[in-house]
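To assess whether ligand presence alters the predicted conformation, the chain was also submitted together with protoporphyrin IX containing FE. Input:
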Amino acid sequence: MSKENSDEKNKQLDQFRVKDEGEALTTNQGLKMAEDEFSLKAGERGPTLLEDFHFREKMTHFDHERIPERVVHARGFAAHGEFEVYESLAPYTKAKFLNEPGKKTPVFVRFSTVAGSRGSGDLARDVRGFATKFYTEEGNYDLVGNNMPVFFIQDGIKFPDFIHAVKPEPHNEIPQAQSAHDTFWDFVANNQETAHMVMWHMSDRAIPRSFRMMEGFGVHTYRLVNEKGQAFFVKFHWKPVLGVHSVVWDEAQKLSGKDPDFHRRDLYEAIENGDYPVYELGLQIINEEDEFKFDFDILDATKLWPEEDVPVRLVGRMTLNQNVDNYFAETEQVAFHPGHVVPGIDFSNDPLLQTRLFSYTDTQLIRLGGPNFHELPINKSVPEVHNNQRDGYGRQAINTSYVSYHKNSLAENTPRPVSEGEGGYSHYQEKVEGRKVRARSESFKDHFTQAILFWNSMSDVEKQHIVNAFSFELGKCKEVSVREQVLEMFSNVSHELVSAIAENIGLSVPGKKEITYTKSSPALSQENTTKKTDT
Ligand code: HEM
């Protein structure tokens, strides 16, 4: 572990760090034991006795060592670091960690793959998670993002369906960590909002060279809110100072065999050697009154905001400078949640984000065994926690107050809500009205414009890699009807693309489509306005 950090979070963690070296072996009750090799028996060759409390305790604890892995993003690797803001962002947000030039905030970052199990390989073709916990003076703020700027689906009610399609097939648990199977492609073809994200997924972005060379994206549109109560739409970016680099598929396959820990080893060793990874935080900001100025819906998570139209402003830098001491205590038990916000950061009505706000605490209640996982050292906020929540499995706080309810007449000093002026969080008062409907907005129905732009923005080599990836992955799909549906779908993106894939996997090329842009977007300009048909 590097000793660079002496921040507030590290001081707090120090109280929990245990050094066992040179100490007498004890039971969990603190009793020193004289023997740890042989169970207590009735005679040297006789049966083990129930009386052997040391054996029972040791074995029972071992029997309960495993917890459920994350339902997604099970394989991950994390490090501590610090974030430093360059300038005051007070005109946009009242978040204190973004208000003072040069202010430093401790962070914990976990990188992950999505589909594979905890023991799967690092180099799978997959999206990578990029989750950051800022331990701010106003409480924990989590930016739970990915290394791609868009997502497969638009509404989180489809997330269980999507993950069921992506995870290994149910009858044989094959393949372990790749999108090379029928259920994945069947989902894609029958849920065509996936088109844009699948293009990213088949690109080199899905096989990063290193966690140190990956971008991060908050994906959703969030809100920043300033002291005056003015709100701005925002997208968050992490830009690696080392640049974005990938391996090629041949390298990925060889590395998967030779060193399945390639990415975690790379990050661990870089930090141990003092070669600290640095990422700059970028913001894209859209004023509230400009919400409808774009020819895509800014609440649709399958769309990015083109950087040439909404520039990314670099506002701070994050340095990862300390490896964890204990993988389980820190990396496995950390609990991120896009709903962990601080004053000055709020949500938009993106239906994917809205549903995520439910899912994370819900899953962590079972993964981390009850409602007190916020007390685990890695999850503890720097400010103390005060409220009327009580009890539950593993409770550590010894609340001394007699009264644990609000309102009351028996105690004067129970925790009280405080005004915004005193730092109390209050939600942005967005005006919302509408009929209760289960529906997709018309403005979410264009699935191909940005997929086409992505394809058109690729160099020849990158295009070839995308063709190869589709051919490899789709080529593993057994159902010819599914392969055909996928080719038909992506003929909406490029005839050149599907012709090359069809040839590689021995199918006939779907009819050439007149590819017209369903919307001619000023934001997605030039390229698509000048070239209406993909030839
Ligand atoms: C992890 C749900 C979409 C990024 C998780 C976990 C769940 C989940 C249940 C496991 C959490 C845990 O056990 O601690 C969902 C749902 C989604 C969704 C329901 C859509 C409705 C997304 C999107 C992103 C994302 C769009 C990226 C912007 C992550 C990351 C992790 C994660 C990075 C791993 C966090 C860690 O390292 O512990 N998600 N997710 N998820 N999700 Fe999502």
